[in-house]
């Protein structure tokens, strides 16, 4: 059969049952797998054969779902992780270690920023953060001889900045390093970063991919296009023998299409164990089956909400890439012509106090530390995740006191608008 379209891949990619086998991806809820001989199992430990022996490394349920996400992104290999944070960490740590350096966009999820700027810095990996709107010259100046990767988000959370793939991939490749992109908000339904120069894609599958706030998870997908051998001195972990596996060299044994993910599984998952539960992988697959239907509705509703808020007398400003006049509208039209995401950020006139009062007036929308699922939810960072900061500190962190992150669900949009209007009327 010819290459399937995304809507078909959401349902069928990654798993094809044989005669008499279950039509749905089965849940292999087992920690271990039986073998007839130690020799047969030993070949798995030596990476001489493929198969399963311990779910911390690999599980058939998880691998089938990873294969579906790989197909949706147009990659060559993929893996699931226990969370989006684990995916971001593994994606970078797989090729960067103590003494290395990474360039990252400053417009990224706060948890990822903290992972990079605090936790991984303690591990000896330095990060230079650049504004997404920096000039090519400013971006080029951020690189060092020990730079190993560039990291950005397709659509930043919650700033909603759209990454200029052309600019960032050109700079990364000029310095012989891959571009890693978190594609959580756009999903492969609205953007496939590999088509715009990215080399590695990550996801918090907890968000739109799962879609129903059922299961925390993450994913990493390799494009198979980055030539690790051409820059062998920068990536010895992939291009030189691994003594923990009897001296195999990943790029030689698994090729450019499989080396990166194989190393992440057999080294990082082996030692750090951020593996997804098979049941969570199953829930993720259920969500993926309707991803192509939900994303257009999210985007349609979000644009209506953004336009409505833009004309509301009690709203100070609105950010949404699909909104004409938005600072990132032009990039969104270039890289996300079919829609961006369902998240709208806006400010309530009156600052922190007014925004808090607005939140209290919502009924349909849930106040939740979550984003991007079927039900509308919202968060006021200044009174929740960033409540310890004063207004000046919030501004320095890029979070204004009046900012409300509004994740538009797939309910009837008229009910969402009515909820917004009722809450704003109480401000």
From TrEMBL:
Similarity annotation: Belongs to the trans-sulfuration enzymes family.
Could you confirm whether the keyword Translocase appears in this record? Answer: no
Q: Which cofactor does it need?
A: pyridoxal 5'-phosphate
Q: What does the organism's lineage look like at the top?
A: Bacteria, Bacillati, Bacillota, Clostridia, Eubacteriales
Q: What is this protein called?
A: PLP-dependent transferase
Can you supply one Gene Ontology CC term for this chain's record?
A: cytoplasm
SUPFAM superfamilies cross-referenced by the UniProt entry: PLP-dependent transferases (SSF53383)
UniProt keyword terms in alphabetical order: Pyridoxal phosphate, Transferase
Pfam families the record matches: Cys_Met_Meta_PP
> Which InterPro entries does this chain map to?
Cys/Met-Metab_PyrdxlP-dep_enz (IPR000277), OAc-hSer/O-AcSer_sulfhydrylase (IPR006235), PyrdxlP-dep_Trfase (IPR015424), PyrdxlP-dep_Trfase_major (IPR015421), PyrdxlP-dep_Trfase_small (IPR015422)
According to its UniProt entry, this protein's organism is Candidatus Flavonifractor merdigallinarum
Q: Name one GO molecular function term.
A: cysteine synthase activity
DNA damage as UniProt keyword: no
Modified sites of kind N6-(pyridoxal phosphate)lysine: 207
**The organism sits in which domain of life?**
Bacteria
GO annotations under biological process? Answer: cysteine biosynthetic process from serine; L-homocysteine biosynthetic process; transsulfuration
